User: What shape does this take?
Amino acid sequence: MAVYAFLSMVLTYEVVYASENNSVGEFSQGDLSGWEEKSFKGNSLYRFVETDTGKALRASTEGKASGLFKEVSVDLIKTPWINWSWLVENTFKNNNERSKEGDDYAARVYVVVSGGVFFWNTKAINYVWASHEPKDSSWPNAYADNAKLLAVRSGDMQIGQWIKEKRNVREDLNYLFGEDITQIDVIAVMVDGDNTGQSATSYFGDIYFTKN
Assistant: This one.
């Protein structure tokens, strides 16, 4: 359900343009300027905390689901690479992540492409820390055919560790949707446990785009 709602809301907000090598999530500065919360079933808890590596955004859920999103247009010709860091304390148990009943993740980073007035043209990638699906696997979202999930990490092997990630969004969109898409319009982060009723905690570092 969460992906569908994120896809819907991109039609209703003004866009803030990101410059080359621009940070769109300055969480290490304790800055949530331009970010808004969308609730799906109750509210996950988002707050800034000090960690061993500095300030970060702590995200936790106890069977709830809400996410933080930011409208920011990113030119994927100039800056196709999304960079972020995250730490997950735990994953979910015994859930089928390809089903509606198991569609929960300890950490998600969304990129969304607006379809304008044509909602069915809206597309999204969920970069997730999967509980069970193998690393680098991808599959359609259980609630929305125009959203794909991609497991950047999986399982418990690296929980409790800060992991830096780097993905070429333009290449991932082409691989998952078969189209050369050159702009994204929304960034979002989320932890959700509403379908499984389980709890999870994760941390997000800065999110930024680069040319290489």
About this structure: The helical segments are 2-9, 169-177. The domain at 2-210 is CATH 2.60.120.260 (Jelly Rolls).
